[in-house]
Amino acid sequence: MWLFCFLAGMVLLGSVRWHWMRQGPGLKPVAERTAAGALELPQLGGGEWRLADHHGQVVLVNYWATWCEPCRDEMPGLMQVAREEGPKGLAVVGVSMDDGANVQTRVHQFVALYRIPYPVAFPESRLGGAFGEVGIPTTVLIDRQGRVAKRYVGEVERKDLAKDVADLLAES
After folding, report:
1. What letters, b where the CB count within 10 A reaches 16 and e where it falls short, cover 15-27?
2. What rounded mean pLDDT belongs to the chain?
């Protein structure tokens, strides 16, 4: 019995530690933030999505794919944060990492099915472009001055994202 409790405790401790190592608590201090750079992405349906067009806003860039289960799991939370915080100065773009034949059609159908309320674009390269190699899902938060404030690797919880976005929106 003690062995079972010990093993269960170690698994729980390991998963909590993994979550915090993966997501990290809080935002990077302002002095440690680096410029996100020029991010210009071809948008689903045509046109370009440009980070420069969102100067002065907090920007959330979410890398995902239609076939990615954790991406689908986190999407309702991302959409809720986008709807709640958009009027306060949050801009969101989803970057589809899908590729292959008929990618535009597949992504368009997915966006319509899930009613994604923010622009969807494609990466500059299949490795993720401006932020280097990107696994999915990956979410990058950019402050009002265009600096990377946090990078989430793996599925992000809505409450964690909402807190970090609110903190960034409160910065002057």
Report:
1. eeeeeeeebeeeb
2. 85
